[in-house]
Design a protein that fits this description.
Elements lengths: L3 E2 L6 E4 L2 E4 L1 E3 L2 E8 L19 E2 L34 E6 L7 E7 L18 H7 L2 E5 L4 H4 L16 H16 L5 E11 L1 H10 L10 E5 L13 H12 L4 H6 L2 H17 L18 H4 L10 E6 L18 H8 L5 H14 L16 H12 L5 E6 L17 H4 L15 H18 L19 E5 L4 E4 L5 H9 L3 H12 L2
Parallel strand pairs: 3-6, 8-9, 8-10, 10-11, 11-12, 12-13, 13-14
Antiparallel strand pairs: 1-4, 2-3, 4-5, 5-7, 7-9, 14-15
Helix pairs in contact: 5-7, 10-14
Length: 517
């Protein structure tokens, strides 16, 4: 029996800015598009405007403008929602079981898309209803400034722009402050906020760990495919990009950049970016190390103030390689045929070495999945976990390895674990083809909820899951038959990177092109 209530006197919560009204659907109260702050372009966020009347919070707020028009593609893999864009995008959404004093864990979700794209509702599975219902938690998803609006370092032009290179991070901190001040009125515990995200959203967990102003606003962190070697600290001279933008747009100063239409700013940037990228110059669109953000912890070290914050960190087996399904069915090919495919890209002696390492890690997986093994995320994640584990006894590692029912069974790809985490496999098409999807959802979801409550993901659906140490990464392999393995792929990952890196562009081109036929 479904339920729905939306009424003048129902689901009204008090906030520091004034009352807001949501609605109830199937035992969960939902509030959409609540402003948590406001900001001038390139400036720090300020408190949102106060209101005496009840604010109707039943419509999603604007999302941050993107640099280019999105094109629907690959919706089977990552089903999207496209939404209205505006610079007035500092808003958040809340799902809660009740407006009471229960002090539930608060799941604070930061979306993917690097630091340039995405939104709080972009992926269909970002919907927080099922997580709130099945986990008895409060879910918050947040929009913030992205790309040039959120990450363009203009500090050379005066104090008012000193942290423009981290304006998007300041937005997230403003949202966390709003949550700290208001979430008790939504049935949440302001002292138990779990910051979590996938891809760029996982990167933002690290950004907050390295930002002193965020201290005390969260209790735990959960990073999904968010330790990305290619997204380190930005290089080059920021002023060079700013001057080029001014010249191209015909403005005389930074104030001029503040007021040009966003479409013109984005168009100018897109025109300049290829040459700047080729020359290795500053491109913006990434957090800027300074006094407000201490930079990549693998370069600068973790801030000791957050060293004891429990972290759950992991990746998926295929990441970006599994977006190219290939023209072959690995499940019916003989090993010899699979070996012939691999020998198109690497020498025979290299393959023999790799096969030995691979079989030690994945004795039952088809040999052809060697080309799927991700190194772009997994290798820096191993380094991150080992570095972090030296500071505490509450760093936990996982790897999502269950094939998804696409093209006869495909190694899990970037974003494929999101529906399982949110308890939303019913909203997404592909899990419905797997008889193991429901059990996997319960394994992952119960782990996340246990971590939210205790800082330890252990639960009765999984084998023992110890915390990592600097010498031993205890990785939970999430498959139909989960197991915890110690340093299991630490030899395989660098070997795969070294072997396939010279041919990876050709591999992806071959697989993507042939998969269309």
């Amino acid at each position: 029996m479904h339920s729905f209530t939306y009424d003048r006197t129902f689901a009204i919560a008090q906030t520091t800015e004034g009352p807001v009204r949501g609605f109830e659907h199937d035992r969960i109260l939902t509030f959409r598009g609540i402003p948590y702050a406001q900001a001038r372009r390139f400036h720090a966020p300020e408190p949102a405007e106060k209101h005496e009347d009840i604010l109707d919070a039943t419509s999603y707020g604007y999302v941050c403008p993107l640099l280019s028009q999105e094109k629907p593609k690959g919706e089977i893999y990552v089903p999207h929602r496209y939404w209205l864009q505006s610079e007035d995008c500092l808003n958040l959404n809340i799902w809660t079981p009740a407006l009471d004093g229960a002090r539930r864990p608060v799941m604070f979700w930061m979306h993917g898309g690097g630091y340039s794209a995405g939104s709080a509702i972009e992926h269909i599975a970002y919907d927080g209803h099922a997580m709130a219902l099945n986990g008895d938690v409060v879910v918050v998803t947040v929009n913030h400034r992205l790309n040039l609006l959120g990450y363009l370092d203009l500090s050379a032009y005066g104090k008012e722009y000193e942290n423009s290179g981290n304006a998007g991070g300041d937005d997230l901190i403003a949202a966390l402050k709003w949550v700290h001040e208001n979430i008790a009125g939504f049935g949440g515990d302001p002292e138990n906020v779990v910051i979590f995200g996938q891809s760029g959203g996982g990167g933002k967990v690290t950004t907050l760990l390295q930002s002193p102003a965020a201290d005390g606003l969260y209790a735990k962190g959960y990073i999904m495919s968010g330790v990305i070697g290619m997204l380190g600290d930005p290089k080059g001279e920021p002023q060079e990009l700013a001057e080029a933008l001014m010249e191209k747009l015909g403005v005389n100063d930074v104030a001029g950049l503040e007021h040009v239409p966003y479409a013109a700013l984005a168009e100018a940037y897109e025109a300049l970016a290829p040459a700047f990228r080729k020359a290795g110059k500053y491109l913006g669109c990434l957090p800027t190390p300074n006094a407000h953000y201490l930079g990549d912890p693998l370069v600068h070290g973790f801030r000791p103030e957050t060293s004891q914050v429990p972290l759950l960190i992991g990746t998926v087996l295929g990441e970006f390689t599994s977006f190219a399904p290939g023209p072959f069915d690995k499940h019916v090919m003989t090993e010899e045929k699979q070996r012939e495919v691999l020998l198109q890209y690497i020498p025979e002696d290299t393959l023999r070495t790799l096969e030995t390492l691979y079989r030690a890690c994945y004795p039952e997986r088809p040999l052809l999945d060697l080309v799927r093994v991700d190194t772009l995320f997994r290798e820096p994640t191993i380094a991150y976990i080992c570095t972090r584990a030296a500071l505490n006894s509450s760093t936990y590692s996982y790897l999502f390895t269950m094939d998804q029912p696409v093209f006869g069974g495909l190694a899990p790809w970037h974003c494929s674990d999101i529906p399982y985490v949110f308890h939303n496999i019913d909203l997404v098409d592909y899990p419905n083809g797997s008889p193991d999807a429901g059990a996997m959802q319960e394994m992952i979801f119960r782990s996340v909820m246990a971590f939210a409550r205790t800082g330890d993901p252990a639960n009765d659906l999984l084998p023992a899951w110890p915390a990592c140490t600097p010498e031993c990464e205890s990785t939970m392999l999430l498959d139909a038959s989960p197991k915890c393995a110690e340093n299991f792929d630490h030899q395989l990952i660098p070997a795969v990177r070294s072997a396939f890196a010279p041919a990876m562009a050709r591999i992806m081109k071959d697989l993507s092109g042939q998969a269309q036929h």
